[in-house]
Amino acid sequence: MNPSRATASPRQHGQPRHQRQHRLRARTARVGLGALIGALTAGVALAAGEAIAIFTGPASAPVFAVGEAAVNLTPAPLKEWAIAHFGEHDKQLLIAGILVLLAVIALLAGILALRRYPLGAALVGLFGAIGVAAAVSPPDSTWTWALPSVVGALVAMAALRLLVGTSHAAATTGAVSAIDGSPWELSAPPAVEPHGLSPETAGAALPGPAAGRRDFLLAAGGVAAGSAAVGFGANLISDRRYDVAAERAAVRIPRPTYPAPPAPAGVHPDIPGLSPFYTDNDVFYRVDTDLVLPEIDPNRWTLRIDGMVEHPIELSFADLLKRPLHEHDMTISCVSDPVGGPYVGNARWIGVSVPDLLHAAGLQSGADQLIARSAEGMTIGTPLESVLDGRNALLAVAMNGQALPIAHGFPARMLIPGFYGYASACKWVTELTVTTFAAQQAYWVRRGYAEIGTMKTQSRIDVPKPFAHLNAGNVTVAGVAWATDRGIADVEVQIDDGPWRQARLAASDGPDTWRQWTYEWQATTGTHAIQVRAADDSGTYQSATRAEPYPSGASGYESLVVIVA
Length: 565
Ligand SMILES: Nc1nc2c(c(=O)[nH]1)N[C@H]1C(S)=C(S)[C@@H](COP(=O)(O)O)O[C@H]1N2
Ligand SMILES: [Mo]
Known about the structure:
- This protein has helices spanning about 5-10, 15-55, 60-75, 75-85, 90-115, 115-135, 145-170, 200-205, 210-240, 245-250, 315-320, 355-360, 385, 445, and strands at about 300-305, 315, 325-335, 345-355, 370-375, 380-385, 395-400, 400-405, 415, 430-435, 460-465, 470, 475-480, 490-495, 500, 505, 515-525, 525-535, 560-565.
- The chain is an alpha+beta fold.
- The chain folds into three domains: about 20-240, no CATH class; about 280-445, Sulfite Oxidase, Chain A, domain 2; about 460-565, Immunoglobulin-like, CATH 2.60.40.
- A hairpin with a 5-residue loop joins strand 14 (about 490-495) and strand 15 (about 500).
- Bound molecules: the ligand Nc1nc2c(c(=O)[nH]1)N[C@H]1C(S)=C(S)[C@@H](COP(=O)(O)O)O[C@H]1N2 and molybdenum atom (MO).
- Molybdenum atom binds near residues 334, 336, 420 and 422.
- This is Molybdopterin-dependent oxidoreductase.
- InterPro entries: Ig_E-set, OxRdtase_Mopterin-bd_dom, OxRdtase_Mopterin-bd_sf.
- GO terms for molecular function: heme binding; molybdopterin cofactor binding; sulfite oxidase activity.
- Keywords: Membrane, Transmembrane, Transmembrane helix.
């Protein structure tokens, strides 16, 4: 239908057309003004929150607090979906989502506040309450974590009042209708006293609505500039104050008492595209629930060993480094790693033997679980029997020749071969509790993951890539296979529906690291599927049955298609 005909229809209230258009423009402008006020208010809230978080810690800042709470409330299948689709960017996505939600609510608050200030303020208060609830929910939080959200909301309410007030003042300062469709035009009567210049003085200085508008623009500009400056500055200060890069750089890891021999010469066949044997720290996969990385000063860090022990002990970082240090190569992988996925890496670690530590505290009988707890309250449980059975269970302090990177658990993390990371590899660990599975459920177990997170035997094809275009003739297929603690005894490759053929295994660096493999394939023209499977040291092949990562790790063979010409 022709819109101008529609507006011209005599059935529509009988108003003259120009008047209706005029009202529409005014309403649009008002919504725009409300949205602007709302956006500015949200900026104030965030900036004030950041400023208070200088004192209470970055994890208490409203957006991060809400984000962390969202992470903890996310059901496991949704988390797996996010990891599968967004990988390690799932966190940025979450933060972006929260900011968008905040923006929408802020715009609404601004628009409401323009009609009735208390409504808008109530919405701001509600958002502050959500921030408070989120901030005080983590196990390591204190009541002070509520402050950034409380102060953020209060300052935002004040800013909202100022902005709404000056905008109403602008509306009442003279014959506003001089400006056609101006947002001031249809404003409700002022809900609060006009700030700054009274209409009279304003009118004297600058006749008409200009003075009121100038007041509003001054207020809006001031609020915007102020929150940008405070937010930016607070961020800088927080980054400095909570950064332990210098403390980390100062850490000297002593030479290990039990150094590992260099990895055997043949662990890594030199095939372009095959993963390096050791994964560099800066490309090592990272999986954790933290939106703000724990920044732990090793000079203040302590490790408590408690629970079902004869005498609980507490160690400083210096105490820890005085104990015998073991160097050991170990692969870790994540339960969320899909078949063929990236959440697996191999490193050379240095650490203290976990059984040594537990024996120092004296084990009581009857315990069957070791729970490691991190600075931010993560809990990760492992069967005690496995920890004590002679495998290299380490409290690690170094990774590939450096102090642990902050993202990988500085100053200390657990590593226990044979288990997925969620069930063995607690980062930023501050407490080891000897307990039972009956008495205490770890974080991921409460979310439905298997109580005992035994790592499944897995294999991955690194080259060729899926849908690679290859030339007929000799093609090297290569990849990695792992089953830590058990070790890899065999890898086989299948082309299309052909027989399974043995791949060539690279040298072994022990049962706890991945094993690289190659297979020489005489490729013929056409489209072909390549599959791989591995067997652990018991000769058991990985399961062919496809399973999703949740709740006990993915299974199935990696299979990819290539085009040979
Ligand atoms: N404190 C803490 N430790 C943690 C996690 C976590 O979320 N918080 N995630 C675990 C999981 S699920 C895995 S797979 C490994 C990953 O270790 P990485 O990030 O060093 O690769 O850390 C484990 N340790
Ligand atoms: Mo994981």
